[in-house]
């Protein structure tokens, strides 16, 4: 068997396009493969020839995680190695065209048999997608459910829809169907985004779709959802609230919420948290949703909750109920604790503006705890970069909704205008003092601090 020596290198062009380059036969031949993703070059690790871990990338309206792009690069490397191995078995060397064709076939980017495509309906293709895509992306059940929901909507609109007929006009008709059935514009936008994600997978697996479909833009007015969270005083009131003895389950639900609010954990990470994840006063975890490696310093309140549940001898730190039960208990607990601040949600259905008003306890859920952590941390003046390092947010843009609603942050920062004049007078006076005078001032300040404490 003849062995062909070849080199493979993954790299990023100046445009941000991720590429894989192959050279063989004394570098006489060279083939470049586009991986299909565009990234910020600053997020590329040139030494590892991979996207930097724990980063996210905006491609159109979709957020792509580093592991997905790196997985695609790995697929190319494996396919290239397999292609050369097949030629080596026959002591042959591929031409540039032959290698490109074989690698693309292995990746499913080229239809090996046109007749097969013609026999597959859009439903067949979606079934292939819903079986293979969750494995490729390590999806949760919730993520898979969103695509199944999109498919059910598409079938309700047109049971006979096909890949050939799913053009721009068809998608516009789908948008009209959503509007007619009184879906809010925000939901319609989300469902079309999920449909496009499915169609991008379809293209990557060698199928053709009508031109211009992925460029379709929805002409509907969309207002972002109000970010719901507890303000600091509300959070501490909830934390210290005494529930009746017969409502002990509410105390546990409250404690689970507060621990997430003190640490930024998602429900999935709270439920999986083990004592081995607690190292030297901080959490060291790999998140369930994004596989981010996070280091979160525990504040005193979080430590109190860990100590409170030291009696629990399960595999995890806390006895966490199911997500649904916890959300149900939280609503009851929040109502009893008087968390009745009104929340206003504005949305559009077609061109009609709607406004829903509810009490905070009516809509509270586990994810409000994570939002609470972000907003309270920002309100205390903790830099956004530090908050992002604990939550796993990869860019400032993803933090903007929290910054915009953290009104306490603005109040605290504007208070600096009020206090600055006094600080300036003190500093000017201090500069004029003798050493003995400074000692007396220091002594006076220490006494006042002890008195206040």
Automatic annotation (TrEMBL):
UniProt keyword DNA-binding, yes or no: yes
Homology family: Belongs to the 'phage' integrase family.
Protein name as it appears in the record: Tyrosine-type recombinase/integrase
Stretches of the chain forming a coiled coil according to its record: none
PROSITE patterns: CB, TYR_RECOMBINASE
Keyword DNA-binding among record annotations: yes
Keywords: DNA integration, DNA recombination, DNA-binding
Pfam families, per database record: Phage_int_SAM_5, Phage_integrase
Sequence ranges assigned to domain Core-binding (CB) in this UniProt record: 117-203
Transmembrane segments: none
Domain of life, per lineage: Bacteria
Span of domain Tyr recombinase: 222-415
């Amino acid at each position: 068997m003849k062995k062909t020596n070849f080199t493979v290198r993954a790299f990023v062009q100046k445009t941000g396009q991720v590429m894989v380059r192959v050279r063989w036969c004394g570098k006489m031949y060279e083939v470049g493969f586009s991986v299909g993703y565009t990234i910020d070059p600053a997020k590329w690790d040139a030494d590892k020839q991979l996207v930097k871990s724990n980063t996210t990338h905006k491609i159109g309206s979709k957020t792509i995680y580093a592991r997905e792009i790196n997985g695609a690069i790995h697929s190319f490397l494996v396919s290239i190695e397999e292609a050369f191995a097949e030629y080596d078995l026959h002591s042959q060397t591929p031409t540039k065209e032959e290698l490109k064709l074989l690698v693309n076939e292995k990746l499913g980017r080229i239809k090996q048999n046109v007749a097969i495509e013609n026999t597959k309906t859009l439903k067949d293709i979606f079934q292939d997608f819903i079986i293979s895509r969750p494995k490729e992306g390590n999806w949760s059940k919730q993520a898979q459910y969103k695509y199944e929901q999109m498919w059910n909507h598409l079938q309700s609109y047109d049971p006979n829809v096909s890949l050939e007929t799913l053009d721009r006009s068809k998608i516009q008709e789908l948008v009209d169907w959503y509007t007619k059935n009184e879906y809010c514009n925000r939901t319609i936008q989300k469902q079309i985004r999920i449909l496009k994600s499915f169609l991008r997978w379809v293209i990557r697996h060698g199928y053709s779709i009508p031109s211009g479909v992925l460029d379709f833009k929805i002409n509907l007015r969309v207002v972002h959802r109000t970010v719901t969270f507890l303000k600091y005083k509300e959070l501490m009131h909830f934390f210290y609230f005494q529930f009746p003895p017969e409502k002990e389950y509410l105390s546990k639900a409250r404690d689970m919420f507060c621990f997430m609010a003190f640490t930024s954990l998602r429900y999935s990470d709270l439920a999986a948290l083990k004592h081995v994840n607690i190292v030297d006063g901080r959490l060291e975890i790999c998140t369930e949703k994004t596989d981010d490696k996070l280091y979160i310093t525990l504040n005193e309140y979080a430590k109190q909750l860990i100590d409170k549940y030291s009696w629990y001898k399960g595999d995890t730190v806390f006895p966490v109920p199911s997500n649904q039960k916890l959300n149900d208990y939280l609503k009851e607990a929040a109502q009893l604790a008087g968390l009745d601040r009104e929340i206003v949600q504005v949305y559009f259905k077609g061109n009609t503006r709607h406004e829903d008003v509810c009490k905070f306890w009516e809509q509270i859920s586990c994810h409000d705890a994570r939002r609470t952590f972000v907003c309270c941390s920002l309100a205390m003046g903790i830099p956004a970069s530090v908050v992002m390092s604990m939550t796993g947010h990869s860019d400032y843009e993803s933090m903007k909704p929290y910054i915009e609603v953290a009104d306490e942050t603005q109040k605290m920062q504007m208070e600096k205008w009020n206090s600055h004049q006094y600080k300036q007078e003190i500093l000017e006076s201090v500069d004029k003092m003798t050493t003995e005078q400074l000692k007396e001032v220091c002594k006076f300040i220490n006494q006042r601090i002890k008195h206040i404490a």
